[in-house]
Amino acid sequence: GDVTLPGLRGKLVTYSDGTTNLSRALHAAPTATNATAKSSPTAAPPPATRTAATPSAPAKSYLIHGTLDAQDCQLTWSAPDAPTLTLSKLNAKALLDTSGGANALQLSAQAASGNHLPAAVAVNLTGAFFQNGRLKPLTQLTGTGTASLHGLDLAALSPMLQAAGFHLQCTGTADAELNLANNPTGENLTLTLNVASPAFTGAALQGDTLHPDKLAVALDADLAGGGITLHKCSLDSNLASLKLTGAKTNGVGCISWR
Length: 258
Known about the structure:
This protein is mainly beta. It is 8% helix and 55% strand. It has a 15-stranded mixed sheet that branches. The termini are far apart.
C-alpha cells in the first residue's frame, strides 16, 4: 500500500528508568478479567507429561510492496541530562518491495541538538535487499548509498562526548560526504570530512587547546573477504599531515603495502 504523512509531528521521550513515552503507551493495563483470574484460587495443575519435540517453525516471510511519502515532518527526542535532538523539515520518499524488486529511499532534513544551529542531512539509498519476503544475507546484498552532512556545529557534539566518557569540547563547522557501493564480492567506501575553524580542548587534552587552521580527512577503501584495501587514507592540517595508499589487511590484523 501507499502511505502519505503530511506535516507529521512526533516526540519520543526517554525517562530515567529507561522506558519511553511510546513503550508506556503501548503497555496495556491489566483488564478486569485478568485481575479476577489472578485473585481467584486455581486448582493444582495436572502432572507434567512428556511430549514429543516439534521442529521449530520456519522464519516468517512478509511480502510487502508500497511507498512512503513524508512531507515537512518534525521528530524530536529528549532524555535526562541530554540535549533535545530535533529533525525538522523532514521530507522522505521510500519504495519498499520485499518480493525481490528494487528498494529506494530519498531523505532530507535539518538536524539540530539543543539550541545549536541545525545541519543539513541528506540520504539516498537504492538496492535489492529482500527476496521472497525475507531480508537477504549480508553477502548477497546489492545497492548503493550516499549520505551528506553540511553545517554541523561541532559544539553540539560535546554533551554526547561527555555522556560517553570523553571529556572533550569541540568547536568548528563540519561538512561530510559518504558513499557506499555494495555487491556480492565486497564493498567500496569513500568518505570526505572537512572542518572549518576547528578547536579542541578539555580534560582529554590535559587542558591544552588544539586549534588547527583546517582539518580534512579523505578515505577510499574496498572491503572484501574480511580484509580492507586502502586506496587512499589521508589527514591534512597545519599540525599534522598523514597519507596512506595501497595498504591492505588480510582480515587478521596484518597490514601490507602493494
